[in-house]
Amino acid sequence: MIVDLRMDDRIAFITMQDAEHLNCLSEQMCCELIAAIDKAYAEECVGIIISAECRRGVWSAGHNIHELPIDGSDPLAYEVPMEQLLRKVQDIPIPVIACANGTVWGGACDLCLSCDMIVASDTATFAITPAKIGIPYNASGIMHFINQLGINKAREMFFTANPITAEDALNVGLVNHIAPEADLPALLEEKFCAPLRRNSIRSVSAIKRQFRILSRAASTMSSESFERINAYRTKVYRGEDYKEGIKAFIEKRNPQYQGKASDLDE
Predict the structure, then answer these.
(1) Among 20, 67, 101, 243, which residue's beta carbon has the most beta carbons within 10 A?
(2) CA angle (127, 130, 134) in 5-degree steps
């Protein structure tokens, strides 16, 4: 098991504990997180905290690059375990709080944004890195960032793949609170756990369901726009740059990309 689940007075504490592999969101990790979230809901918990045992200061390295397909399949298709995990976090009708006490990379950023609230250590950083590896991110993931950060900050994070600090993340609304790592347990108890225990979970659950429905309604798009997005993405993940990005990552070298922006012209 690489995920630990502990219940404490109706709060579920779910901890990623595959620090050896930087808590990458492998198929096993995603499936165990989904199972833990389901169990927490079945046990009538009023809130879920997702945290991690860090190694080398990494909360989660995001996608397990070794599991990404290179046969022309969509790396972020609807049914892949990481996408299932993100939908589970969004749809489970009780609050989910991410507690990030280290660097958060790639798909792990999307996991945090899928949570209802985020607290972070003051030394944490956040980076969304598909452009470094040649991965064409999907529309739902990009919308998380636009809705949370605004379009300009989202563009900066996606286009540059540069990490932002915890303070910057707080200022742009990516996280709710930051504190020294040693103070995070007290912060979680005061700001989240104690209020969730005393508030009406029926009311909170109804409100979370409304947030989800309203956010989906605000981000609907035409079928033509959806088709165009998929066409762009398909050209990327079936192209040579995508394969080169994965190969370079595995070989621990800088990728040598040859693709051009005009390759995506219609």
Answers:
(1) 101
(2) 150
